[in-house]
């Protein structure tokens, strides 16, 4: 009996849905000890000497702790202590610690720093002319990892803004934003290929004429990312020696620069921030990786599926692949490795969209994501995954070629339809275009009952397809979650503070534990009902005939009870029960020490666990007195329902 079938059986009599609220930013007032500075901001990072704050306008500032007011210093110390106590739940993704910002705009002298065309001062801003090419050097040498922040405004409807970056200490590359009539973006050059021919190609206009946009370039040794107003438009990971600058550019190897082509731009902010600490410091993939290197097999005691690296140390998959497993249960296997990679945490889990993002640590390079979401009809694609072909055999990193059809809308969500034959187990794998960009995530395949199954929910599709795979009448049609939804999820994760990431990680663990306890509660209550002896059933029949008391528990009729008892005692069901109970005490002990749960919620989990054990003992010896049995069972049901409702409210 599959776990989805078991749940369907249990929740005919016992159902409670879990709905988790999204986390909100925690803005508070910060003041300096002399009272001269005050701001509303969220604490995103801190150490013993400085704090990094994010204001409501998304600007990030760094302040010395010694300059803060005493209440603010106390708040920071409490925050640091809480983070130290939560190291058990360290999610595997920690924001970069930025150094003191350098205001490059105030340092630029257009007369000395302009290399081509014309740049000039306009009050506190820098404006380029509409010449064919206007280039200006930024008066600051670059070493190591850094962040460059710009506020830019397009003055004309035409023209591109280009940003010269230094990667890996000495390798230069051009980040192009809105080039040409089609307003394309990307990096030039990668492996001597310009943006339309490499995996950073972005096909959608980025900047709006007459409106300020914040562009942030974050550069590490082997990784760079460019965002516009918080949305990723360019990302690349690899050996920095693959990056080059066109020979026509005569720019010192350690200098950044700005360039406009056939347009005019107003630059009102240029900030340089060195990255003092980063988890990507040790991340140095070498060579040119193959897409196969980044696709993984995901296994846990209750199932398996596929996933792929979509950013450094972030693995994308379907939510239904991992929803029944805690982070400790998940094992990730990459090609060519017999040992699994452990998962730090589940940082993003959207059951409605059937999308999840896991954090882990691996030197493997991620796949490029089509952040623009562009998928033309009739494009050739390849689908990669780890399908099950029957007899317990799983193909590792299988490749299926297909052709994109169109978008279909199901229950308020868009899906990419692809002509391709896939099998169960491929869920969570990538759909790649000819530039090896991820344009979708494999979610399901069509069968003779595909439309009906789609309406019933993605989480049950794979099990259903596995059972019906020999009876397909529409084999050869697959569905994928569009890349634009993957992009939003990745930006969501990378915008988290360490504290928020810890909360998200804990929420997934709580949800898994809650589901397991709910399933066990349903099993034990059902066991007690079907274990009622014949003498009790005769008493119940007499009470029902006399209509003496309508408040007594209704017993499941004898024949259905016999079938249910047989199903509950089957080896498959017992195996599932054993898996649900596995490490239960460890999970309960872990949440007791979590800084992300209230004491009320912790008490609720403990009380529910104890109540389930009491029901299990009672189910083994239900007695023969119907009225006493009914009173006890109604109390058990009431207690479980109340406790689950209280836990759900806390979650």
Task: Give the secondary structure arrangement, pairings included.
Elements (H helix, E strand, L loop, with lengths): L2 H8 L17 E4 L6 E9 L3 E6 L4 E5 L5 H16 L11 E2 L3 E2 H4 L2 H4 E3 L2 E4 L2 E4 L5 E8 L4 E9 L5 E8 L3 E9 L4 E5 L23 E8 L3 E6 L2 E7 L17 E7 L3 E13 L17 E6 L2 E9 L2 E4 L1 H4 L8 E3 L7 E10 L4 E6 L7 E2 L10 E6 L2 E3 L2 E2 L3 E13 L2 E7 L10 E3 L4 E9 L4 H7 L4 H8 L8 E6 H12 L3 H33 L3 H13 L11 H12 L1 H11 L2 H9 L6 H22 L5 H25 L1
Parallel strand pairs: 26-33
Antiparallel strand pairs: 1-2, 2-3, 3-4, 5-19, 6-19, 7-10, 8-9, 9-19, 10-18, 11-15, 11-19, 12-13, 12-18, 13-14, 15-16, 16-17, 20-21, 20-23, 21-22, 22-25, 23-24, 24-25, 27-30, 27-32, 28-29, 30-31, 31-34, 32-33, 33-34
Helix pairs in contact: 9-11, 9-13, 9-14, 9-15, 14-15
Count of the separate structural domains: 4
- Stretches where pLDDT is under 50 for at least 5 consecutive residues are 1-25, 445-474
From the 3D structure, determine the CATH topology of the largest domain: Thrombin, subunit H
Shape: elongated
Give the distance, in angstroms, between the N- and C-terminal Cα atoms.
30 Å
**Which CATH top level class of the largest domain fits?**
Mainly Beta
| Computed CA radius of gyration, to the nearest angstrom | 29 Å
The appropriate CATH architecture of the largest domain is Beta Barrel
State the helical fraction.
25-40%
Number of DSSP E strands: 34
Largest sheet, if any?
9 strands, antiparallel
Structural class: alpha+beta
SS element count, helices: 15
* Beta-strand percent range: 25-35%
Whole-number average pLDDT?
85
GO molecular function: cytoskeletal protein binding; identical protein binding; protein-macromolecule adaptor activity; serine-type endopeptidase activity; ubiquitin binding
InterPro entries: Chloro_Bact_Ser_Proteases, Peptidase_S1_PA, Peptidase_S1_PA_chymotrypsin, Peptidase_S1C, SHD1
Signal peptide: 1-24
Protein name: Putative periplasmic serine endoprotease DegP-like
